């Protein structure tokens, strides 16, 4: 097992790739029935007993997706797993395994790898997922993490992006925009710190939005709620790039339009207050911010009674014919076309 109190700095060259893999594999437990073989051979072996298999992968690059000046490595490992599991839940599936790959530049010692895996393994344990493999490499510059998650579902329970029907209710879990506000706060504190390293970061009373940015939780509970309520969404995806962009994906793939009501978009009070402080409209944060990892989905009107009193689900609009376009009704009653200005992987960072 890892020695998490290790305060040394062990050069990875000393233990080598196979030493590192061996080290990682000793920290990994296998608990899932569907895992036949984990780390140690050329491939993991899984058995889903007749279910459909779901696979999703994500790549996280230092300087593009995360900034180690304010992201602790343990949180990074945790988040890397969460954002990936979120994609399996977005298919209405159960995540059961991940592979976890790392590229490390020479500035990372063994202890840094320990911290990353510590966070990753906490997420695995909490969500009942086995870590069954990965790949390890040196990187010319910075840290690279890639996670692949694997899950399963019965063929008739899988929910795609393209199933929204006219008249369906447009719904979202939890609240939106908080992770973006958390990012603004962390960026501000980073700037202050870079100008004057003796100033301690001031994150007092902002735990919720900082946590939403650094330590998101994939909404497995919502998938379990669907099963309990006997609701099968007609279309679904997770909110990683901002509500606007995700709504447009569902509408485009379903060949439909929609009406979204600004006043129905769920916002936490802290998102709202921090938005005022920073001069950022919280609706804009929800529409274009991203990294919420909530579930956006559509349900048939006949399911309205089943979901209307669920505290963690908001009905934010409805699906229309494609010819009516994708529109938002603002709080003041004006109609705006929904446009995606969310995260763009090839946008230049400032
Ligand atoms: P190969 O050269 O066949 O790809 P590797 O030596 O890369 O094999 O991997 C050997 C075993 O260790 C495999 O089971 C692989 O999934 C696992 N593994 C390699 N790197 C990692 C890692 N960073 N985390 C977890 N498992 C890993
Ligand atoms: Mg390999």
From TrEMBL:
Catalytic reaction equation(s): thiamine phosphate + ATP = thiamine diphosphate + ADP
Binding site for Mg(2+) 5: 241
Gene Ontology MF terms in the entry: ATP binding; magnesium ion binding; thiamine-phosphate kinase activity
Keyword terms, alphabetized: ATP-binding, Kinase, Magnesium, Metal-binding, Nucleotide-binding, Thiamine biosynthesis, Transferase
InterPro entries in the record: PurM-like_C_dom, PurM-like_C_sf, PurM-like_N, PurM-like_N_sf, ThiL-like
Functional pathway: Cofactor biosynthesis; thiamine diphosphate biosynthesis; thiamine diphosphate from thiamine phosphate: step 1/1
Binding site for Mg(2+) 2: 58, 87
Residues that bind Mg(2+) 1: 57-58, 135
Binding site for Mg(2+) 4: 42, 56, 87
CDD domains noted in UniProt: ThiL
UniProt xrefs under SUPFAM superfamilies: PurM C-terminal domain-like, PurM N-terminal domain-like
Keyword Transport among record annotations: no
Residues binding Mg(2+) 3: 42, 87, 238
Other facts noted in the record for this chain: Reaction mechanism of ThiL seems to utilize a direct, inline transfer of the gamma-phosphate of ATP to TMP rather than a phosphorylated enzyme intermediate.
Function: Catalyzes the ATP-dependent phosphorylation of thiamine-monophosphate (TMP) to form thiamine-pyrophosphate (TPP), the active form of vitamin B1.
Name by which UniProt lists this protein: Thiamine-monophosphate kinase
Organism, scientific name: Sphingobacterium thalpophilum
């Amino acid at each position: 097992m890892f020695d998490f109190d290790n305060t040394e700095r062990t050069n990875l060259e000393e233990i080598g790739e196979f030493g590192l893999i061996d080290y990682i594999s000793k920290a990994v437990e296998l608990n899932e029935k569907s895992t036949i073989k984990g780390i140690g051979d050329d491939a993991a072996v899984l058995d889903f007993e007749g279910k459909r298999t779901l696979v999703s992968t994500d790549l996280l690059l230092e300087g593009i997706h995360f900034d180690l000046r304010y992201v602790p490595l343990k949180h990074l490992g945790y988040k890397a797993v969460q954002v990936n599991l979120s994609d399996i839940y977005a298919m209405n599936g159960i995540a059961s395994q991940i592979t976890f790959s790392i590229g490390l530049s020479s500035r990372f010692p063994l202890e840094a790898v320990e911290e990353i895996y510590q966070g990753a393994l906490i997420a695995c344990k909490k969500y009942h997922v086995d870590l069954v493999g990965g790949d390890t490499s040196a990187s010319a510059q910075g840290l690279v993490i890639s996670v692949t998650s694997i899950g399963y579902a019965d063929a008739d329970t899988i929910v795609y992006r393209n199933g929204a029907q006219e008249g369906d209710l447009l719904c979202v879990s939890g609240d939106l925009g908080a992770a973006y506000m958390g990012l603004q706060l962390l960026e501000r504190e980073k700037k202050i710190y870079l100008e004057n390293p003796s100033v301690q970061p001031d994150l007092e009373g902002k735990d919720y939005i900082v946590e939403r940015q650094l330590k998101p939780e994939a909404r497995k509970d919502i998938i379990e709620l669907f099963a309990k309520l006997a609701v099968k969404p007609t279309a679904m995806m997770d909110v990683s790039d901002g509500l606007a962009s995700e709504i447009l994906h569902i509408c485009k793939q379903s060949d439909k339009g929609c009406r979204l009501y600004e006043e129905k978009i769920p916002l936490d009070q802290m998102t709202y207050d921090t938005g005022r402080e920073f001069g950022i409209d919280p609706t804009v944060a929800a529409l274009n911010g991203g990294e919420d990892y909530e579930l956006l989905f559509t349900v048939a009107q006949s399911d309205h009674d089943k979901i209307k009193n669920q505290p963690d689900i908001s009905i934010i609009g409805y699906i229309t014919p494609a010819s009516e376009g994708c529109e938002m009704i603002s709080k003041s009653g004006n109609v705006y076309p929904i446009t995606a200005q969310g995260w763009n992987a090839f946008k230049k960072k400032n």
